[in-house]
């Protein structure tokens, strides 16, 4: 695992978690752009089709507030980075 990721926060980690970073033996992608920029998303166990599809992630800090979603999808040239695509209710 890239050493710089060890200092990063994982999407969905509790705010009071004393260690909100990545865990050994897990697979992560980095979210880029949008309201979740810089967070890591745990994709351990996701199949190739699921990873290619991307994800709608619930967040309170997107355009639609609490309960809104941010859509992220993999970069073609760099599937370890998922780019923000849009917000939705």
The overall pLDDT, averaged over residues, is: 89
Q: Assess the beta-strand content as a share of residues.
A: 25-35%
| Uncertain stretches | none
Q: N- to C-terminal separation?
A: 34 Å
Structural class: mainly beta
Q: Looking at the chains present, what oligomeric state does this protein adopt?
A: single chain
Specify the number of helices: 1
Helix content: under 10%
Order of SSEs, N→C? EEHEEE
What does the overall shape look like? globular
How many beta-strand elements?
5
Please compute the radius of gyration using only Cα atoms. 13 Å
Written description of the protein model:
This protein has 89 residues and is mostly beta strands. It has a five-stranded mixed sheet with strand order 2-1-5-4-3. Strand 4 and strand 5 form a beta hairpin. The chain is globular.
């Amino acid at each position: 695992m890239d050493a710089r990721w060890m200092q990063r926060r994982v999407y969905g980690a509790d705010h009071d978690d004393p260690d909100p970073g990545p865990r050994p033996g897990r697979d992560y992608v980095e979210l880029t752009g949008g309201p979740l920029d810089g967070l890591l998303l745990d994709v351990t166990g996701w199949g190739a089709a699921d990873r290619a599809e991307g994800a709608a992630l619930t967040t309170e800090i997107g355009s639609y507030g609490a309960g809104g979603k941010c859509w992220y999808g993999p970069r073609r040239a760099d599937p370890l980075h998922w780019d923000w695509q849009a917000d939705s209710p």
